[in-house]
Specification:
The chain is an all-alpha fold. The longest helix is centred in the middle third of the chain and has 12 residues. Helices cover 56% and strands 0% of the residues.
């Protein structure tokens, strides 16, 4: 995943952050508000690492799965629906009622 996923959906990542860094404080995470530099500094302070090591640990964490709250966000659904339009036959629209898909009537 990319940092913009984290930044755009910051509160949805709290549980994943707390799973990875159990000593993290939710109130402090709220203050960070998705700021990548602030989060790197926070993880470095929390773990007693140098910022470069914290950045690498965060990079490894970003390689994981998106939290379900992020995946289920309607904005992602709408984007996926628009992308699916390229697979529809001519005359069908991506936002048409699902019950009508495949009907030739």
């Amino acid at each position: 995943m990319k940092w913009h996923h984290v930044q755009e959906n910051w509160p949805a990542f709290f549980e994943a952050i707390l799973d990875k860094w159990p000593d993290a404080d939710e109130a402090e995470l709220e203050e960070i508000d998705g700021d990548q530099r602030a989060f790197i500094a926070y993880v470095a302070e929390l773990t007693g690492q140098e910022a470069a090591d914290a950045r690498e640990e965060i990079r490894d964490w970003l390689a994981g799965e998106l939290p379900s709250d992020v995946v289920m966000d309607p904005r992602h659904d709408d984007h996926s629906i628009r992308l699916s339009g390229k697979f529809l036959p001519e005359g069908e629209e991506e936002l048409d009622d699902d019950a009508r898909y495949g009907d030739d009537e």
